[in-house]
Amino acid sequence: MKLPINVTVNGETWPLDVEPNEILLDVLRNRVGAKGAKIGCERGDCGTCTILLDGRSVRSCLMLAVEADGHEITTIEGIPDNGVLSALQDLFISHNSFQCGFCAPGIVLGAHELLRDNPNPSRYDVQHALAGNLCRCTGYEPIIDAVLEAAGEDRS
Amino acid sequence: MTVTRQPFEAATPDDKLTYVGTSPPRIDGLDKVSGAARYVDDLDFGPDLLFAAVVETPHAHAIIKRIDTSRAEALPGVVKVVTGADFPFGFGLYMKDRYVFAQDRVRFVGEQVAAVVARDEGTAKRAVKLVDVEYEVLEPVFDPVFAASEDAPLLHPELKNYPHVPWFFPHNDTNIAHWRKTRKGDVEAAFAEADLVFEDTYTVPRYAHCAIEPHAVVSLYDRAGRLTMWSASQSPYTQRHVIAEALEPLGLTHQQIRVITPYVGGGFGGKAGVSMEIMGAALATAVQGHPVKLRFSREQEFYNTYQRQGLEARIKIGVTNDGTLTAIEHTMHWDAGAYVEYGANVVNAAGLSATGPYRVPNVKIDSLCIYTNLPPGGPYRGFGYSEFNFGLESHIDRIAHQLGMDPVEFRRKNAIVEGDTLSYGEKMNPSGLLECIDKVADAINWGTGEMSGDPNKVVGKGVALMWKAPAMPPNASSSSFLKFNEDGSINVTVSGMELGQGYLTVMAQIVGEVLAVPPEKIRVETPDTDRNPYEWQTVASHVTWGCGQAVEAAAIEAREKIFEVVHRVHGYEEDSLFLSKEAVRCTTDPDFELPLRDFVIAGIETADGSYRGGPIVGSGMFMPEFTSAKSDPETSQGGHPNVHYTVGAAGVVLEIDRQTGKMHVLRTALAVDAGKAINPDLVRGQIVGGLVQGLATVLYEDMRYDDNGRLLNPNFTDYKIPTSLDIPDEIIPIIVEVPQPDGPFGARGVGEHTMIPAAPMIANAVEDAVGVRIKSMPVTAEKVALSLWEGEN
Predict the structure, then answer these.
(1) Which residue in A98, B177, B366, B702 is a FRET match for B493, CA 20 to 30 A apart?
(2) pLDDT in tens, A57-99
(3) What's chain B's Rg over C-alpha atoms?
(4) From A145, which residue of chain B is nearest by alpha-carbon distance?
């Protein structure tokens, strides 16, 4: 039995019919085409499926699509403003913050959430905010440095 | 063309490099931060895409008596069920000891015995549970030392019939699939004469790569009989070759197979060679006309791709009272797992180099590749060196202490230098090892005691050296094509893989340097075996050095074509022409300037209105023609198995809670001799990332198996990899540059090396801090606390 839901993804409304047990991550990737959210562990450990749900970071692999009915979702594809990267995204590029890039969408989203809620984070705040997003390549340093620099720019 | 260059200086006549040695941002950075980067699982294949799921054995060692697929086949939505009987084809990279699906026997928990292809993923997974397999359970063997004995059950009775590379030496009718012996001098005589001989055993468990992207492959065997694979792989050409060899009975040839590798979400060796992809290829042939996707779950990622092999190492070292190393005997029993088609070469590499970066006149190394009933071992960042370096560098520290020598001074005194004779008779390449040692010692204030602000905590310091050579067949080669575009920008095709290390950017910098074009105007494409030229594999930390030479050669060929056409039209001698700022200039006519974009496609117009030239293209190839794997099997003397070694040193300042054993890295430094850092920021990225990965293997990671060979922690909840909270307070990356004579601009590889010294430096710092020596990895807080508790009670 399919259930009708309405979700807003990156500003666009998507009326969808979904099975009650369909995972939000699968619906976003396969029905909406938001491939920035990745499948990494399917049990909430790695954070590659991170999205913003009404502005809060959630793991879309742990959420049913029906639970997203009526909510606003932002994926990595929705972060640039009219095609212009955010200042934080630019800093992630200039810091070579990512290597393989598979964790990048989740970390970009989590870092945007952090800076919105806490424009003045300490190094520990950044480490703490991103602790649910695993990266195997970088040792996290260039990621943390970029977020701290972005916060510094916002302050100036 | 190939680069023919002997002295390093010839590559950089004026030492005025424009792009090499600078740190432009990665050329793939925008793709990755914007979400544009596509990985295999992100590609769309339309409504006829099918999904595969694998039937796995629950037994570590068993005979397959019967497989009944009828219930699975009856499930609506199931398209095909296949078993080993459908694909009785052996495969393997260095030794053909594996099958697409298990044949008569299974050898590790999780091994594939059958697979289901269905219209959707859920149906495929449900059908897997309906495949009935009847087993006769056999006695498994997990301990490599026992497995090597005559009393152990034989896991591969067919070992004698497996085709393998000529540098492997299997012992038939045993579980020893390969035994690398290296002999130099006379260790027995040296031990008899030594002032101190010290011997001990060190153990290293298995580890998982944990690339964040799981393995995935989509394969289409189209109605014209062509097999195209979109694969998350470090090795597109090797994959094509191994699959073409294996599926040759089905009529597939190299020409009929195409492997496309979009971005890869991390490899670390785990996506080298061929593992699950062979199933994808075979399944596609069973459902001709439909693309079929096989994506491993995180659990499968842990137990049915390559794992880093376990090791038990017995080390005996002799020294004289003045601190001179005189002899080493290093016996390594490798838990290589159920299949060693790749892992045996890890064993081989360690067997040639397990002296570490030291000058040792008398050497006896035995490196045994032993079959066990655990998952197949294979390549993992460090390729054997990470494994043996734990014991070796722990042992070196302990000997220094016994001699009453400073561990840094002891290492300095015995550190290998250019021209020293290696264990197999060749000479050591130029090396900045001493500089690495000194810079690391400075960075951690070696020799100065540090106190913790917390009375319950103590601070210790440890150092370790490392070295590693690329482990490559003697004919491992690279090639490159290059073409200009109308705007003077360039496309380069190679078949090395961007795994995150920054390879594409480095190739762009090399081309940019030769052709005076900024790297941001150079696009370097990920591989497609139909279009990009050959590359052996992206492994061994060799692509900067090897593929870099092919790319440099392609750029030089293009430059020669540019100068030739300018000479024909303008009359300047070719050796008076040079490139600068995207234009051709002339040493004899300072006013001459011809922008590349004006003619690299369109050609140059002459007085009569006709044109000269045409689209400028270049090609380059590289093979290390000076290497050879032929040597005496009893001594390893006589060959030239390694191209060169990259060396380095690392140190750590470690804080330990005496009550809990909990450890915290206050500061760590790693110096690596990159020869020439083509992009210093990317080298620093390798240092920081590799160190953190190495620290995890010593501080908390390890694979735990139950008594039946079942992996207990195949997920990120129970197999802990570092989070952003688990990193050192301070990491000091140090780049040393003693040029590699044959490297592009003097460069050599650094990618794997940064992981290698992490484990022993921690063990050494623990002993420095609390006087406890831990001889088995990982060196966990639990082990440290229990050792302290035992010491106090």
Answers:
(1) A98
(2) 999 999 999 999 999 999 999 999 988 999 999 999 999 999 9
(3) 27
(4) B724
